[in-house]
Hints:
By secondary structure, chain A is of the alpha/beta class. Chain A has seven helices and six strands; from the N terminus they run E-H-E-E-E-H-E-H-E-H-H-H-H. In chain A, helix 1 crosses helix 6 (about 150-160) and helix 6 (about 150-160) runs antiparallel to helix 7 (about 165-180).
Amino acid sequence: MKLVIVGLGGQGVLFLTRVLSETARMLGHSLAGAETHGMSQRGGSVVSHLKVNEHGGPLVRPGTADILLALDPDEAYKALGYLRDGGVGFVNSGRADFPRPEIAARLAERGIELHTLNADAIAMQLGSPALANTVLLGFALGHPAFPFGYEAVEETLTRVSKARFREANLHALAEGYAHFRPGESAGGKGALEHTIQPEGTGEEQ
Amino acid sequence: MEKVLLGNEAIGRGLVEAGCRVMTAYPGTPSSEILPAVVQFKKELELDDLYVEWSTNEKVAFEVALAASWSGLRAAVAMKQVGLNVASDALTSAAYAGVAGGFLVIAADDPGPHSSQTEQDSRMYAMLAKVPALDPATPREAKEMVRAAFELSEAFQIPVMLRPTVRVCHGFQNVPLEDVPPPTGKANFRKERRWVATPRGRYFAHVELNEKLQKIQATFATSPLNRIPNGHGRYRFGIVAGGVCYPTIVELLAEAGLSDEVPVCKVGTPYPLPVEAIMDFVSRCDHVLVLEETDAVIELQLPDRRNVAGRLNGAAPGAGELTPEVIYRVLCDQLRQAGVADLPAGEDEVLQALVGELELPPRPPRLCPGCGHRSAFYAIRRGSRKAILPSDIGCYTLGINLRAVDTILDMGASISMAAGFYHAHRVSGTQRPIVATIGDSTFVHAGLPALANAVHTGARFVLVILDNRVTAMTGFQPTVDSDQLADDGGGVQVALEDLVRACGVRWLRVVDPYEIPDMIQLVKEAHEYTQQPDGGVAVIIARRPCVLYQREAITPQPVKVDEACDGCRYCLVAFECPALVMNSETGRVEIDRRICVDCGECVDACYKGLIVPVISGQ
Ligand code: SF4
Ligand code: SF4
């Protein structure tokens, strides 16, 4: 199982990587991967690679990832190439035009699913924009293709969160999870864009 | 027990498990997490007999650790690859002198480069200095190599280099942990002639060093750190791979179903290369592809390269990281040319083209919202017209986004180059104002000799020391003007003001860069001082804690953009705060509340006065 997590420095890509790698370890899987540190952490593009029960190097080769988590729509575009045929992407985006139709069509041809959620808006409602990463993770946990179950991630999240953020993180995970509508991903094949509105914001996605 | 560790943490764990007693470092990506890992294990395991220090630069770090080795203890020093340039004077001489306790030089390379000014290959330094180099492929192996390196160092009385690359340093993996033995041995410096570098003694030391290397090369031929396919089998195609290229190519071959057909020779000891054993393998292959980062160190040591492709003949690119996709492309080409296999294209070119058409804006790194450096740069730009703006290495390199940075060379160069710009213009009869900027940590690292030099030679320029109280870019390591040591408090504070005055500077002011009008005024006064008959170098210390490190240092001053904003973009360009964004629908600038830290600094950035404080109740 190969996962790629992308975003901009400061959006909490590293935190999600830690939560998922710790979950994999707790479940007894072997893992390898790589993080981005340094200059890019100041708002530049940040990419994490995570390989569970795979052999080989730390990086995921484009065209082979099962799962993509993207905290920013532009970074998502740049990282779509990582997904394999039939892979699944989860994107934090509040843009009405994401993904562009021509790109959605290409993804559909390859059986790639893309699920979008305005995790930023939900996080703002929860009181902290920094929670968008955990919201998106909760959202992804609703999909059957995601390699870890909700309880397992919840357990590691409880453990790796700093005490003062623990409750907010767990709440954000639950909120994100509640926003995944399994019915909407039915049909499996084909790129589905979900228009999921965070309650009460009235914002168009 | 197993734990998920970053490569750097695995190296730190390896140091502790191998009984390292003194560990020093200067922070630099991708090496910065090694020392903190040692500190963490030291605290966890209550290893009171382990000394750790963040030194003021890599040469100092190297020499402090080397003295521990010469006293008979196991010692290690860690740095990034360009840090090794700074420590190279010590490294080359230490190779001749040798060591007593095991001595490990950890130099972390940055192929890409992701966070460095060069892509240089530290293994080249191992060749230059004539010390053995180990090149780990994974975090797990990096930890194992630490122990092997200490043993090698002690067996041959020689410094040993461990050269992880960024993907090992910031790669992670589950790593088995072993017990940490209780410390053994006491420091006991013994007087020996070899510790004193005299030219005549050094000739004999060089002869001896060459002999050591020959012996080490022989042991490497059978070392488990290498996996050289032996036997008599002949192959159409073979691979020689070092570092992280090894697990990558093994994975690619497995995916392509070629694992049985294409043997891979793993090189963990690139210098001195066990040439005979590897040439035996090379000679049994019709075609050989060498994969290594970042330069061609393995390849260069192969005496017969007629059937060898790699970086040198252009088969693999001569610059940049060998990511899986790059290696896959090289592999496809080579296998096709050799007539061995025709692999499918690796990437979805249709998708790539579609994404390319979006012309997504690049996302360069930027100073954080509320960063005091931004205010300082803004004040410098406002207080100086047509100035030359040499700067330095750190977060504030990103002052380039505010057009407040004209040159970046290496650590400390802002000050020496400011002096050089001054002298070059003066001697040819022209004059330009000059404002150099340097961070507090970089100033102490390499700025001090440059400042004494500039004052002594009568150079005239303004120097702004951007003092944010920490080494921010690399993860907030303490500097000499704090009382924090690597593992605890209790450090003696060395004041920047004292250091500046000790270099002979006679005009020194300290300012909070958040007071933008004050700082603009000071910059102007500083320029005036440089023009006076008895003027010289004027120094301003712009002091304001890093907001990412000390958010609480901000007194919240929420601001809003008035509806009269006409979208002229002046603030976006001149102040460049990531939280100031253009709303393309309203045509007005607005504040991105997700990342704004309410520093209130942008009030000065709208010359029309349309960024205004929010009065409570509004
Ligand atoms: S980390 Fe600190 S010094 Fe660096 S850009 Fe952010 S606020 Fe500025
Ligand atoms: S107050 Fe202004 S300068 Fe400060 S973070 Fe917010 S937008 Fe940026």
